[in-house]
């Protein structure tokens, strides 16, 4: 225990330095989805590999068809477990840029309404701040003890925010290097400021871009109006038909593979004392818009969705232009739960669109990733070990929660490498990930480091399989 105490003290004493390192990483605009930032993604990978090598990991940057992977390895004591830590160095685009109070890639520390310090930058919470909590815990361990309490392989990818297209082939191609006793992921939230959380489920995701094509060119909306098909109308009618008046998705077979949450899990969720009013109130809303008769926790954790993420088409510039556009497009995503099959759903959606097209219009589809939901076993010894360690650090014991977001690769650690995944994160619901003014609480960054030090120390003492 003496060594864990000195590691924790080392973390406390070096908070400013660790913040400086996080700032360096946050200054790199590693937006994976936009080809303009390709070299910045590589720069982030190089930075991380360099930092891990400086700690004493055997670290390298590995090329893929997309953005590179960072792979680093450090052996643990003889006989101790070995873990694979996964995180992503890519970030979401910053638009609408005019809503940021400061440059998204010039991190600043500000004070929140509660007076607490927060780190503001794109990627502060998702996922650079979170992944650095683990790196800093390893750094402090090495500095204080000369080693790590368990074996650690670190895998950072740069395409999580675009569906992780290169990761599955990478897992398949590097099984020997990546195989470990369990995967650790730091890309999820706490339950509240005082209560750490272990996420036991994540929703899956299917992304689709649909382009509706009508006339061979943009048309004068007076000369042709009334006669020519308007693809914006066609598109909006189709998108509007995705839900019925009870909020259910109307795509045939959509609910195939969707189960009800077991009674004991529901009972646990009830004990969390979740406030629907606060959850929606925090973002200026008060009416749960999803399926009627379902709680907000069900709507976000255990029910599937269809969401339109963007609609593009026609004249949107200054002033006014009377035009019937030749095409209209939308970006649509579906969150999946339980056993829903991503590719079946994609096909069913495409059929749903095609069946609603006028005969002289056509539709084109562009896939944007697909991953199934994951559900982790509640009785996993990894969860028990992490929960024990987290309870030493935080005022409240760890909550077992669901998470509405997706980490596309999470299920593949089990499928490809036969490993359990442990989802522990220190984000907060108001971190504004994917939004302007994304932030990470300083306490998340600080106590997140301390939490990981405790967790790897606990794992080092052995986890009964
Ligand atoms: N870190 C998030 C997942 C998440 C969201 C965790 C909310 C906790 C709360 C992750 O980086 C993410 O945003 N994933 C994307 C994946 C997609 C773009 C392929 C998502 O869920 O939309
Ligand atoms: Mn993330």
TrEMBL record:
Q: Which GO terms describe its molecular function?
A: metal ion binding; peptidase activity
Which Pfam families does the entry link to? M20_dimer, Peptidase_M20
Span of domain Peptidase M20 dimerisation: 201-360
Q: Does the keyword DNA damage apply?
A: no
Q: Which domain of life is it from?
A: Bacteria
Per its UniProt record, what InterPro entries does this chain match?
Answer: Cyt/Met_Dipeptidase, Peptidase_M20, Peptidase_M20_dimer
Q: Is Secreted found in the keyword set?
A: no
The processes (GO biological process) annotated in the record are: proteolysis
Alphabetically sorted, this entry's keywords are:
Hydrolase, Metal-binding, Protease
Q: PANTHER family, from UniProt?
A: BETA-ALA-HIS DIPEPTIDASE (PTHR43270), SUCCINYL-DIAMINOPIMELATE DESUCCINYLASE (PTHR43270:SF12)
What's the name of the protein?
Peptidase M20 dimerisation domain-containing protein
């Amino acid at each position: 225990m003496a060594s864990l105490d000195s590691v924790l003290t080392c973390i406390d004493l070096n908070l400013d330095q660790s913040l400086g390192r996080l700032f360096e990483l946050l200054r790199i605009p590693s937006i994976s989805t936009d080809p303009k930032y390709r070299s910045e993604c590589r720069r982030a990978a190089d930075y991380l590999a360099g930092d891990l090598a400086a700690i004493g990991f055997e670290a390298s940057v590995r090329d893929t068809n997309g953005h590179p992977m960072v792979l680093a390895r450090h052996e643990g004591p003889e006989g101790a477990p070995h873990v694979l830590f996964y995180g992503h160095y890519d970030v979401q685009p910053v638009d609408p840029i005019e809503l940021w109070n400061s440059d998204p890639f010039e991190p600043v520390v500000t004070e929140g309404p509660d007076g607490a310090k927060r780190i503001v930058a794109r990627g502060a919470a998702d996922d650079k701040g979170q992944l650095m909590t683990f790196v800093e815990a390893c750094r402090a361990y090495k500095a204080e003890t000369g080693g790590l309490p368990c074996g650690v392989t670190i895998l950072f990818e740069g395409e999580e925010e675009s569906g992780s297209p290169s990761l599955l082939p990478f897992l398949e191609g590097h099984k020997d290097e990546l195989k470990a006793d369990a995967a650790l992921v730091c890309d999820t939230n706490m339950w509240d400021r005082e209560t750490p959380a272990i996420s036991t489920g994540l929703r899956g995701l299917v992304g689709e871009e649909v382009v509706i094509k009508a006339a061979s060119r943009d048309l004068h909306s007076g000369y042709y109006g009334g006669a020519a098909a308007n693809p914006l109308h066609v598109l909006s009618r189709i998108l509007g038909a995705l839900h019925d008046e009870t909020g259910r998705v109307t795509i045939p077979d959509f609910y195939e593979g969707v189960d009800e949450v077991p009674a004991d899990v529901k009972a646990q969720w009830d004990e969390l004392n979740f406030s629907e009013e606060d959850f929606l109130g925090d973002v200026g809303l008060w009416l749960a818009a999803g399926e009627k008769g379902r709680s907000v926790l069900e709507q976000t954790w255990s029910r599937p969705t269809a969401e339109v993420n963007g609609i593009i088409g026609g004249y949107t510039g200054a002033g006014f232009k009377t035009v019937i556009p030749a095409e209209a497009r939308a970006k649509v995503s579906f969150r999946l739960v339980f056993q829903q099959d991503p590719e079946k759903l994609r096909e069913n959606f495409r059929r749903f669109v095609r069946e609603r097209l006028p005969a002289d219009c056509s539709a084109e589809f562009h896939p944007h990733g697909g991953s199934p939901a994951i559900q982790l076993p509640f009785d996993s010894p990894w969860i028990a070990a992490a929960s024990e360690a987290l309870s030493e650090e935080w005022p409240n014991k760890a909550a077992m929660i669901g998470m509405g977001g997706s980490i596309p690769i999470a299920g593949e650690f089990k499928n490809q490498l036969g490993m359990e995944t442990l989802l522990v994160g220190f984000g907060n619901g108001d971190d504004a990930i994917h939004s302007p003014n994304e932030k990470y609480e300083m306490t998340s960054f600080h106590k997140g480091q301390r939490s990981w030090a405790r967790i790897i120390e606990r794992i080092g003492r052995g986890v009964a399989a």
